[in-house]
Amino acid sequence: MSEPHSRTVVVLAAGEGKRMKSSLPKVLHPLLGRTLVGHVLTAAGPLTAARTLVVVGHGADQVRDHLAAIAPEATAVLQAEQLGTGHAVRIALEAAPEVTGTVVVLNGDVPLLRPETVAELVAAHESEGAAATVLAAEVPDPTGLGRIVRDGAGRLEQIVEQRDATPVQLAVREINAGIYAFDAARLRDVLGKLSTDNDQGEEYLTDVFKMLVSAGEPVGVHLAGDHTETLGCNDRVELAALRRLLRDRVNERWMRAGVSLLDPETTWIDVTVALDRDAVVDQNTQLRGGSVVGSGAVVGPDVTLIDTVVGPGATILRSHAVGAEVGPDASVGPYAYLRPDARLAERSKVGTFVEVKNSELGAGAKVPHLSYVGDATIGARANIGAATIFVNYDGVNKHRTVVGEAAFVGCDTSLIAPVEVGAGAYVAAGSAISNDVPPGALGVTRAPQRNVEGWVARKRPDTASAAAAERAQRGTQGAPAPTSSASEGEAIHGTAASVGGTPGAGDTATE
Ligand code: UD1
Ligand code: CA
């Protein structure tokens, strides 16, 4: 066993990525939960490098800000002009003269690389005592990539870029992944001697291999088992292809871990998401950021969760949630919108066309239909009737509403914050509540109902309504109704309308 090597990671991330046609630097494009450069840094994680240097150039400030957020231990090194991959590594090592041992260079645009693969490359390099080792792959279509050129004995001779290659070299399907391990001292030696004598007039890092070979230094090739890991991202078509590959990899991992994905092709799970065994994800579902789905929960179809935690046994159907918490066995949707700090306790329900923001629902509380719940605390087992609006904003400030345990809020109610509905209190349907309702009281703000008899016959004669009214009146006087469409239920409902604004339970809420 040799001494543990000191390791330095250098990530090349200064290029513009012209073919992305984007104002966002290429390495900052997102891919299932991380940026391209974020994926590359993650792949290098297990190397436990003493230093991480990221060469930045195009969009340097943006890339620096991103690094500060995701990898504060990394040092950004500015490559003001992008004069090639060799130049980029030279600048990085000049900025870190103390670096010795193994230098691992990673292209910032190769995001599918697995940590195990980088670790294997570095282990092979270090155990061979090589001056340089390149990660290679056999690919079906090598177009655009550097080719691994071997001599008659199969030893690496040089790496040739597509544009500088001979027809024979172009036929080679073994390519350079843009991932390397170098011995720092021997790399420094040759980096200073790189020429720009190539089709692009750049300092190619790949030329280091040819130079080390002719100096008699040992160089190695480490072949990646899965060539898709080495795919780079140069335009948005390639980015989409990488996204599909990563989706499949992530989905396969979760299925093997005991998660049911009913339609993996339309299920997009960020690499940062966690799912428990027996979670079920139905089709057209995106799980993003720090989302977590508990055991036995059913999410989808048609759900997007961003940074949302779903408890065991919960159901979320055709809904969008951001920064929310859904408790065990809670039910959400169809067509619900949970916004940041919507917190739903166990067995609570947020139903159809309901929006919840910065609010807590207690255990078993229900908001089943057509409501806006903003800045509220709703007690356990409270029932919020259809079309209740928590009026939280006075045009300047936001205010909170508190609804007590087992309170019952009738349909089409406005709760005008700040206001409190006490435990076990009722609110009559159609009320606008701006004063507290004490526990156990009925809050009601409705005007008494007034019926103007015969109004339709006088003001809307000769209409379908007038004719229907006339038939109905004849019917109640004992004459047979000419059509059978007016059911008994409707007639009963019409006569049962409450008088004087005192509601019965039947007209305060919905289930
Ligand atoms: C490079 C390799 C090629 C390999 C391919 C794998 C060279 C000369 N060629 O080609 O053999 O098959 O990667 O994907 O190295 N960068 C800088 N500064 C620069 C130039 C590039 O930081 O001055 C960065 C880019 O941002 C990118 C990476 O280096 O992240 C690779 O550069 P790119 O221009 O994409 O190289 P390729 O032409 O793809
Ligand atoms: Ca590239």
UniProtKB/TrEMBL annotation:
Q: Which GO terms describe its biological process?
A: cell morphogenesis; cell wall organization; lipid A biosynthetic process; peptidoglycan biosynthetic process; regulation of cell shape; UDP-N-acetylglucosamine biosynthetic process
Keyword Cytoplasm on entry? yes
How is the cofactor bound, in the record's words?
Binds 1 Mg(2+) ion per subunit.
The record's active-site residues are: H369 (proton acceptor)
Q: Which UniProt keywords are listed? A: Acyltransferase, Cell shape, Cell wall biogenesis/degradation, Cytoplasm, Magnesium, Metal-binding, Multifunctional enzyme, Nucleotidyltransferase, Peptidoglycan synthesis, Repeat, Transferase
Q: Where is this region: Pyrophosphorylase?
A: 1-236
- EC main group: transferase
Q: Where in the cell is it found?
A: Cytoplasm
Instruction: Look up the record and name the pathway of this protein.
Output: Bacterial outer membrane biogenesis; LPS lipid A biosynthesis; Nucleotide-sugar biosynthesis; UDP-N-acetyl-alpha-D-glucosamine biosynthesis; UDP-N-acetyl-alpha-D-glucosamine from N-acetyl-alpha-D-glucosamine 1-phosphate: step 1/1; Nucleotide-sugar biosynthesis; UDP-N-acetyl-alpha-D-glucosamine biosynthesis; N-acetyl-alpha-D-glucosamine 1-phosphate from alpha-D-glucosamine 6-phosphate (route II): step 2/2
Q: Where is the composition biased (Low complexity)?
A: 463-479
Known cofactor(s): Mg(2+)
GO MF terms on file?
Answer: glucosamine-1-phosphate N-acetyltransferase activity; magnesium ion binding; UDP-N-acetylglucosamine diphosphorylase activity
Q: Which residues form the MobA-like NTP transferase domain?
A: 9-143
Region of interest (N-acetyltransferase), ranges = 258-511
Q: Which SUPFAM superfamilies match?
A: Nucleotide-diphospho-sugar transferases, Trimeric LpxA-like enzymes
Q: What is its EC number?
A: 2.7.7.23, 2.3.1.157
* Binding-site residues, acetyl-CoA: A386, N392, Y393, A429, R446
- Substrates-to-products reaction catalysed: N-acetyl-alpha-D-glucosamine 1-phosphate + UTP + H(+) = UDP-N-acetyl-alpha-D-glucosamine + diphosphate; alpha-D-glucosamine 1-phosphate + acetyl-CoA = N-acetyl-alpha-D-glucosamine 1-phosphate + CoA + H(+)
The positions annotated for binding UDP-N-acetyl-alpha-D-glucosamine are 12-15, 26, 79, 84-85, 146, 161, 176, 234, 339, 357, 372, 383
Annotated region (Linker), positions in chain: 237-257
Q: How does it assemble?
A: Homotrimer.
Membership in a protein family: In the N-terminal section; belongs to the N-acetylglucosamine-1-phosphate uridyltransferase family. In the C-terminal section; belongs to the transferase hexapeptide repeat family.
What is the annotated role of this protein in its UniProt record?
Catalyzes the last two sequential reactions in the de novo biosynthetic pathway for UDP-N-acetylglucosamine (UDP-GlcNAc). The C-terminal domain catalyzes the transfer of acetyl group from acetyl coenzyme A to glucosamine-1-phosphate (GlcN-1-P) to produce N-acetylglucosamine-1-phosphate (GlcNAc-1-P), which is converted into UDP-GlcNAc by the transfer of uridine 5-monophosphate (from uridine 5-triphosphate), a reaction catalyzed by the N-terminal domain.
Q: What is this protein called?
A: Bifunctional protein GlmU
Q: What is the originating organism of this protein?
A: Micromonospora phaseoli
